[in-house]
């Protein structure tokens, strides 16, 4: 089943800049998709249409058959989005309260809110510091807190926009590990990055965006050798001639 259907999607900003142009694609439930492209190619603009943070000039995004523009609250619940700047997403006085904010706004009862917060904090391994003040967390912990906040909304689709930028190596490993568990649990995963090295071995599909258009869309091993033409660094292991699957650890 296609959980995401994008047809002829274009967005022009008010100053006339074209963000994305004529994007058409479908994503199946449970896919793990990596979106790459040089800075300014349109990755963030594209992702922001998936939950109605931006609305199309032309075209449409449908989630499970329903247009995002027609029902934005539904889209926000279906698509959980973790942004690059984890700090700006912090809203609570404690780690627990921060994660509770989303489900509380869904008007769920207290018991259900608590259940979801505990479950989400367990997934990202922050349950032991549920009482801490979020601003005291490390960069990696803040990113995982942001992930817990979206998990508590129980979205079927998880979108990560440059999730690894400014994380140290343990932070990257932990976030990647948790993302893979979420994929195994059935979530559809989209990750935008200009750094393929960290994730590509796990992806089912690689989309390359350039100048607002999808210029390649295929299994990673089919196109990994051709990405440099679009400002994306080919991973070292690929350059050395290693099969993508063999980098999995
Ligand atoms: N709010 C905005 N106003 C005007 N132009 C924008 C805005 N946001 C992004 N852009 C432009 O849209 C294009 C795509 O940007 P973006 O989607 O952020 O790319 P990426 O995430 O791939 O780096 C770029 O040319 C960028 O400068
Ligand atoms: Mg971006």
From TrEMBL:
Main location: membrane
Gene Ontology terms for molecular function: ATP binding; ATP hydrolysis activity; ATPase-coupled transmembrane transporter activity
Compartments where located: Cell membrane
Positions of the ABC transporter domain: 4-236
Keywords: ATP-binding, Cell membrane, Membrane, Nucleotide-binding, Translocase, Transport
Pfam families: ABC_tran
Family the entry assigns: Belongs to the ABC transporter superfamily.
The protein, known as: ABC transporter ATP-binding protein
Native source species: Candidatus Desulfaltia bathyphila
